[in-house]
């Protein structure tokens, strides 16, 4: 099914695809009641000076946007299924940032970055825990790579929350 997915129509409305291509980061706010008008007024003023923009979704767009969150979470697994000849494994880490961190994305050294096909980051607004999926290139020892990455996190004083499923691999280690 993954290999024929391209024959079906895209589920995102055109306006959302345009926004996806225009901006790297997206924030979905689901609101109701008195705060909606206040939020719209604040965002309108804010984006007069700041980089970025916003729009209010139609009911259909809102429904599809929130459904799309689940597609993002499964993107690494889908990529692995479709590109099994290029992917060894997926290393999934939940990374807790400090409250005052301003650098949210790690800068991996070339010897680690070169072992990855893609890096996917996603999280929740006002939550400093990022879900980071690393798609590992075929032939790379994903367990050894995980140890190197954990060492980098320790040096950066970042942590892996004990309540999360940190360091999960998507397939069993070969015997």
Automatic annotation (TrEMBL):
Its EC number is 1.1.1.28. The keyword Oxidoreductase applies. InterPro entries: D-lactate_DH_C-sub1, D-lactate_DH_C-sub2, FAD-linked_Oxase-like_C, Lactate_DH_C. The keyword Cell membrane does not apply. Keywords: FAD, Flavoprotein, Oxidoreductase. It is an enzyme of class 1 (oxidoreductase). It holds the Pfam family Lact-deh-memb. Residues 1-161 form the D-lactate dehydrogenase membrane binding C-terminal domain. GO terms for molecular function: D-lactate dehydrogenase (NAD+) activity; flavin adenine dinucleotide binding. GO terms for biological process: lactate metabolic process; transmembrane transport. This is D-lactate dehydrogenase. It comes from Raoultella terrigena (Klebsiella terrigena).
